[in-house]
Amino acid sequence: MKTILDFYDLTRRFGDFEAAKMVKAAGYDGLDYPFYGSLPLKDEAHFQALKEHLDALGLICPQAHAPFTMRHGMEFSESQEEYAAVLRAFRISRILGVKQIVVHALNLPEGSSEEEFNQYNFAYYKSLEPYAKEAGLKIAVENLFHRDRKRGYLVGVLGTPDRLCRMVQSLGEGFTACIDLGHAALTGMEPEDFIAGMTPGVLGCLHVQDVDYKEDRHTLPFVGDLHWYKIMESLKAIGYDGHFTYEILSFLRRFPDDLYSEALAFTYTVAKKLTEKF
Amino acid sequence: MLLSMETFTLVRRFGDKKAIDMAKAAGFDAVDYSFYWESRTTPWAMRGEGYADYARSIRDYLDQQGMKCNQAHAHYKMGYGMAFSLEEPCFLDIVRSMECAAILGAKAIVVHPLHTPADVDSFAYNLSYYRALEPYCRRFGIRIAVENLYWEDTKFRLNRSLPGSTPEEHSRFVKQLDPQCFCACVDVGHASLCGYEPEDYLARMEQGLVQVIHLHDTDYLTDKHTLPFTEKLHWPKIMETLRSTGYEGDLTLEAITYLERFPKELLTDALALEGKVGRYLLGLFQNRQ
Questions:
Q1: How far apart, in whole angstroms, are the C-alpha atoms of residue B136 and residue A82?
Q2: Element of type H or E holding A206
Q3: Neighbour tally for A120: CB within 10 Å
Q4: Which of A241, B224, B257, B260 shows its CA 20 to 30 Å from the CA of A121?
Q5: Which of B253, B273, B279, B287 to mutate to test the interface with A (most CBs of A within 10 A)?
Q6: Is the pLDDT score of B42 beyond 60?
Q7: Angle value at C-alpha B89, between B87 and B91, nearest 5 degrees
């Protein structure tokens, strides 16, 4: 099981090239490239150079995360800026050698039925499929959540293994599932149970992060309250053959530059210990 | 200035000597010894028969290792209405922990103020409580540090500080006690939970009163007791304020929760990071970063 680190905080602070060196120095096998947030847009030549840099370092980039600015009601067309940003992420992912890219499902207006949600998102994902295929990518569908403002609690979006698997299986071969372990915990399921409930072969990737069951903390395993050894046992039990991909932005975000490498090295030590148990 | 860490999590899991070894290996100069125990029936060498001899043996071990016990923390089961006398087991626990802390070499021991009912004069009640402990400060040669605590006001859904609701009142409270026996402890996390930036709380404390500090990070909502830089407090500002207010005590991390959930096989690495964070904070204090 390869250890992969979400690249967002690193590249935001240190730039792609220096950040990649830091990922390598910490011991990771590769990185998960983020096409979201406030990162400046870079041209394709930049990413070709980055790919060469990664190859020289011996790092892989098997996973990426598409922008999540698309909203319900926007057009599924290249003329729609937010949609075009997703397609751009596909093209760049191809350059980086990405195999799976997480694309968030779109929330529907309050009061919409599950059926309406499924139909709308089925159409959205299917519209993306040809572009993903051209880029040699599988689209990963993630379990998400939204806040029910009226009642003040979090509601799962594709928030059970059954719903997630049904969506992915209905979409077909060009798609896979991504379980965000923290999101599972926030919406009422122990992550190890969520994993155990997945149909064999549907789970393609992970967002590994710890939470306190209340907030989407995106922190390091063992800093929150999840049961990490049970999670690893559950992954093993279902025959998961993907990577161990951290999404621990909040743990790293506030360390000063002078302490960053130490903190990063420690995150790898934790990942290594967990994957050894696998 | 020593770099110290609260060691309760380590002591509970590995015993006193191993905890000292681990703190030393992680780069700490000293330990903050906590006299916590889960219940009165929990076996705890530092409070049973021969407690003083046991404390001396741990002091010897600290000396051998070149480590210090810079400060300590008394048990906190004492509550409103309990007698301020040795007949009261919780009061006796505090006195015993003062004696043991002095044997370990601690200069100060934190004793929590007591939360009182709304119709009780909290200031007066707590002054009488601390004054009841004063003879033991003199007997054992140790200061009591009065920490800023908080209680949850469920009606208004906010945390309220004690003793006093402001840093000025905290200072005023401590100043009414004998300075030979008492000083103030500022817990930066508790300050953040009560509506203060910790740096502002520290700046508003009367100079010279704060001789003990509890450093840990929070999200301003819950008492997280986690590692600095993993939550939201402004560490450079806190360290700068400590320096500018002439703080002369040690830097003590009270990141209990950070260490609590790591399995044994990761604890040394988790501790090593805590040690590096501590050294970094010390560097900020000394204006070296």
A1: 70
A2: strand A203-207
A3: 17
A4: A241
A5: B273
A6: no
A7: 85
DSSP state of A243: -
Provide ipTM, 2 decimals: 0.89
Give the sheet arrangement for strand B251-253, strand by strand: B210-214, B182-187, B143-147, B108-110, B68-73, B30-34, B3-6, B251-253
User: CA B41 from chain center: how many Å?
Assistant: 24
Rounded distance, CA B288 to CA B284, Å?
Answer: 6
- Give the gap in angstroms from C-alpha B26 to the nearest C-alpha of chain A: 13
How far A158 CA lies from chain B's nearest CA (Å)?
Answer: 29
Q: How close B221 comes to chain A (CA, Å)?
A: 12
Contact assessment for residue A251 and residue A223, using Cβ atoms and an 8 Å cutoff:
yes
Q: How far is CA B157 from CA A2, A116, B153, B194, in A?
A: 46, 39, 6, 11
> Vertex B193, ends B192 and B195: CA angle to 5°?
70
The answer for residues whose C-beta is within 8 angstroms of residue A266's C-beta and 6 or more apart is: A220, B269, B270, B272, B273
Q: In sequence order, what are the residues at sequence separation of 6 or more whose Cβ sits closer than 8 angstroms to the Cβ of residue A152?
A: none
Contact assignment for A254 to B276 by CB distance below 8 Å: no
Of A182, A274, A246, A270, nearest in space to A10 by CA: A246
Distance CA B284, CA B279 (A): 9
Chain A residue numbers touching B258 (CB-CB < 8 A): 223
Contact A233/B at CB under 8 A: no
Distance from CA of A172 to the nearest CA of B (A): 40
The model's pLDDT over B131-169, given as tens digits with 9 standing for 90+, comes to: 999 999 999 999 999 999 999 888 888 899 889 889 999
Which of B226, B266, B289 lies nearest to residue A270, judging by beta carbons?
B266
List, as ranges, residues 143-172 from B with C-beta within 8 Å of A: none
3-state DSSP assignment of residue B33: strand
How far is it, in rounded angstroms, from Cα A227 to Cα B226?
Answer: 19
For A35-90, write each residue's pLDDT tens digit: 998 777 888 999 999 999 999 999 999 999 999 999 999 999 999 999 999 999 99
Strands B210-214 and B149-153: unpaired
Q: Is the pTM of this model over 0.90?
A: yes
The answer to whether B272 contacts A254, with C-beta atoms less than 8 Å apart, is no
- Tokens 């370092």 sit at which residue? A57
